[in-house]
Amino acid sequence: MAMNSTPRIGYNTNDSVRSLSWNDVSVTVKPRRAHSQDILRNVSGIVQAGEMMAIMGPSGSGKSTLLNALMNRHSNRSTKISGGPRINGLEVEASYMHQLSTYVEQDDALCGSLTVQETLQFAARLSLKLSPADEQARVNFLLDAFGLSHHAGTIVGTAVRKGISGGQKRRVSIAAQLITGPKIILLDEPTSGLDSQAAFEIVKLVKRITMEYKPSTAIYEMFDKILLLTHGVTAFNGSIAEVQPYFRAVQSPVPPFTNPAEHILAYANTGFGQTLPVVRNAWLRSSQIQTTNTEMEYANVKASIEPQVPDQQSYVRPGFVVITKTLIHRAFIKSYRDVVAYGIRMAMYLGLAIMMGTIWIRLRPVQENIQALTNAIFFSGAFMSFMAVAYIPAFLEDRALFTRERGNGLYGPTPFVIANFLTGVPYLLAIALVFSLVVYWLCNFNPTGHSFIIWTLWLFLDLLAAESLVILISSSVPVFIVALAGTAFANGLWMCTGGFLVRPQTLNPFWRYLFHYIDYQSYVFQGMMVNEFGDRNYSCAAQEVGRCSCIYRTELEEECLIAGRGVLEQYGYDDRQTGTWAAILITIIVVYRVLAWVVLWVRRR
């Protein structure tokens, strides 16, 4: 964590933020059916302009929790935060902190299909309102500063396409967050995955960092202050110069020729060294705690005499329309480069189409094939819908990126949901069209151009509904295996209650009234059945001269024909209701998307 002075990074200046402080920050989590647990207890600190503080401590000591508390990021509603950030000694809201600061989290949430340069460009467009020349100047500066210029045109990397290394991804993550020139920078383990030289260069350049577990001596000496945490309480808080005297005073001196960072981390690791009460009491009895408190009190007094808080809008942010267009542009690049998003699905659906077309090949319009045609209609809609689970990995990557960018205050769920929907529409339409071109004519469904178009549109709506369901479930439970299981179960439920396996008239009332009427697959099946049987006749063999043997009794029986409407009557389908069914299906799609928006709005992580 650090405060910027004037200037530190070429375009980045700070002439208004004098200090960032926090007083008695506590974080309490109350899990279900369990007692409340204190993650942080009364942690205080202050960073002056131009200073850099390393927040250190063993695993589980509360380092990330403190950063999340300062940015008002909490994983669930059972988390209670008391205390908060102060700018120049004055209390500020989370939205205010977002305007002045940036937060680089532990995990690299990047779009793997973008190049390094595109990643920085889109970060700039989502954060700032700049001219193309200024945007490119910032991007070029950061590429050069982080040693990424030679990799500017290399993609970050996906599951099927190798990109830059892990250390380079970390540098890209940090550079993307520095694009705005923030006055306050919080970084959570920014040197993870980097070799010592790369870590040194990043800390030297940024000089704004939260410390990883064992910083090298060279990196350690670049910091101005140390905040040492253990089990959520303060073990030390002061300047680098005060480390040696303090640890001598508590009977734990730093041995000669030893990295001080390693020594104080061992001291704070109460599971292997001192006990927690000893460490805690040593700090509370020290004179150093008074030094820290005095520094914070001085900032508070100065704030009461000379209240000075910079304008919230430290730079011009892009508007809603610009952000939405930028997200759509980025999503289109991702969708055509990342074969996992739609390429593999297109191949899967094409393979399914070839399989279906060669199994149900050239079915003649005779009564013996009516059941086969009905089976093919059900199979097309149900399995097209089921295979939408292949979109889950791509959406979870998009959601992770959205969560990080939303956490930094760039945009909310509305532009994300809109961009996701508009990006998917042309690809899903292309999938429906390619699938139909193969299946429809090979299987010999109703051979008219109008019927083919209607069939394709029903499949398109089917895919839209299926993908909307995937987005809703994956937004609610953003864990791949859980989202996969939930989506598969939902599709199985829709197949069973859709009206093919058990006709609606004989379906158990519980399943019929609770699920059948909200089952999007049922409306797809009904629409495609009407498309096939609404105006097509099927021949039935003559049993003897003057008599026909038709399994469906219709007005055309004397002509040894079955009117397709007779098949529809057996299912209870009215061919005049297709417009209503399409409207209901579109409503279901909208409801799924709105519910996904609600989930994304409620869930912060």
Mind explaining what this structure looks like?
- Strands 2, 3, 5, 6 and 7 form a five-stranded antiparallel beta sheet that branches. Strands 1-9-8 form a three-stranded mixed beta sheet. A three-stranded mixed beta sheet has the order 4-10-11.
- It is α+β, with helices and mostly antiparallel strands and 605 residues long.
- It folds into two domains: 231 residues, Rossmann fold, CATH 3.40.50; 237 residues, no CATH class.
- It has 22 helices and 15 strands.
- Helix 3 packs parallel to helix 5 and helix 14 runs antiparallel to helix 20.
- The chain is elongated, with a radius of gyration of 32 Å.
Keywords:
605 residues, alpha+beta, Rossmann fold, five-stranded antiparallel sheet, three-stranded mixed sheet, 22 helices, 52% helix, 12% strand
Blueprint (SSEs and pairs):
Layout lengths: L1 E2 L15 E11 L7 E12 L4 E4 L6 H8 L8 E4 L2 E3 L2 E2 L2 H7 E4 L11 H12 L4 H14 L20 H12 L6 E4 L8 H11 L10 H4 L4 E6 L2 E7 L3 H7 L10 H9 L7 H9 L3 H18 L14 H18 L1 H21 L10 H17 L5 H16 L5 H31 L5 H28 L3 H18 L11 H6 L5 H14 L3 E3 L2 E3 L2 E2 L12 E3 H8 L6 H25 L3
Parallel strand pairs: 4-10, 8-9
Antiparallel strand pairs: 1-9, 2-3, 2-5, 2-6, 6-7, 10-11, 12-15, 13-14
Helix pairs in contact: 3-4, 3-5, 12-13, 12-16, 13-16, 14-17, 14-20, 15-17, 16-17, 16-22, 17-18, 17-20, 17-22, 20-21, 20-22
Number of strands: 15
The domain count comes to: 2
Class from helix and strand fractions: alpha+beta
What is the overall silhouette?
elongated
- Calculate Rg over CA atoms: 32 Å
Taking the alpha carbons of the first and last residues, their distance comes to 22 Å
Question: Helical percent range?
Answer: 40-55%
**Total number of helices:** 22
What's the overall average pLDDT, rounded?
84
Biggest pleated-sheet summary: 5 strands, antiparallel
- Poorly predicted ranges (pLDDT <50, ≥5 residues)? 5-11, 208-214
Strand % is 5-15%
